[in-house]
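Q:
Got a chain?
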Amino acid sequence: MIEANMAWPPKALAKVVERTRESQVWWEGDPTKLEEFYGAGGIGRTRPGVAGKLREFFWGKQIDPASQPSKKLHAPIAADIAKLSASELFSEPLTIIDPTGDKALQDRVDLIFNTPIFHGDLFTAGESCSALMGSYQRVVWDEEVADNAWIDFVDVDKAIPEYKWGRLTAVTFWSELSGSDERDVWRHLERYEKGKVVHSLYQGTPTNLGTALDLGAHEGTKGLVKGLTAFDDEVGGYVDLGVEELAARYVPNVLPDPEWRNDLTLRNLGRPDIRHDLVPIFHSLDRIYSSLDRDFRVAQAKVFASESVLTSMGPGRGLSLSEDQEVFTRVGNKFGKEGEMESLFEFHQPAIRVLEHDQGAELLLRRVLSATGYSPVSFGMSDEVAQTATEATGKKELTVKTTKGKARYWGAALGPLATICMQIDAVKFSGKGVAPSEELEIEWPKFARESDEAKSRTVQGWEAGRAASTHTKVSYLHEDWDEKRIEEEVKKIDEKDQVPSPFGSLPPDQNPDPNIPPEPPVDEVKPAEE
């Protein structure tokens, strides 16, 4: 529970904040911040359990800049995995529908949810969820922004959840307001509980929540006062939702997290794809990446020549070797096999170990992908091209399974919360919003689709073998079409394929040539005489 002058972040969530900071620095991928995080006195070096692994770390390792200047490169594998997770989930938009078929309600649902803005927000939240272990959703509204309620997404390290029997019962979202500095920090807290949202304002320090103040004491919360339903001295001002539901949900990235399975709160938060146990591998990948760059850097061709083959540039200007000179006739200062004097003139070209670096990095990358639940082909590590849906699914089987699992977490949160959002929308925007009578449903796109080119080859094969009807082919090519649109397309194709008869309305099976006598009916054919 929130109390004045409590430690911040709360001790119960200190582990989450610490873990999220490490995931964040790899997600961002800034080499300077990686050095600071794992450098002397950095958070990464003071984290429990790190001491034994320091020798494995690549970032933050002490290097004498005089003898070996730092030329480290970062391979953004962690960020690519988070982006892959979001792409597999939300690259094709989901659809929220009203199962009762209420047109007015469906139009309102389409206005709020089935839009590019909401789908873009989902994609953004999906990447954050993968990188930081989870994502919160909450219902918000602001008449100055839009004439409807909508769902807002909040990162996992900006909320304090309360669980009972593994179910979210309340959650407090917090944000730092303008005017905060290293000494004084202003925080706005929004506690979502059943039927209401409680607002409060605190002034403290970076490590202490501080004292509660009136909402009107800061410009960032002053505008909330007029929208409060009531004010309570103990909890602050609150807004009545008009719906006796919790207007917030949480989506874990992946469950369970073995490390926190005995913590009644943390066990529900899940684990990120940028996991702490993969951090040593991320360090090793960056080491290999930087080593390959060093090979290219030091692999410039070198020429070793004795003074006898160098050209004097004049007094005080030293000697040089012309790169365009083709013939050298001077004798040098070393003895050959026969005892004669000869010049030293040698070329040296260091090897660039591209293949060795690539193989080493691939081994580590496959380990990371296996741990996070993604197929190498999803990461562009195969030149094979999927020809059919079965092959596409087979080559991405691990990715498809992981994505379906994550989609269940998202569906369990978005379906109920979208319904609550529509209920609140009907209360706050009377005359515009429509409250649903049943829970809204989510239609997910197919995971691991065939390309249009692969589908066309399949249909060509069906056509050649006369193995499918026009209806089947159209349904296969356009999986997102409804039955009415499919029938219209089938009718157009059939009408186009019909060949008009040159003999008017004669049936196509009747022989129109008058020179060929018609065949007698079957029952009039006489048996041949013996």
Residues 1-6+74-274+392-448 form one domain. Residues 383-387 have pLDDT under 50 and may be disordered. Residues 253 and 406 are 7 Å apart (CA to CA). The first strand starts at residue 95 and ends at 97.
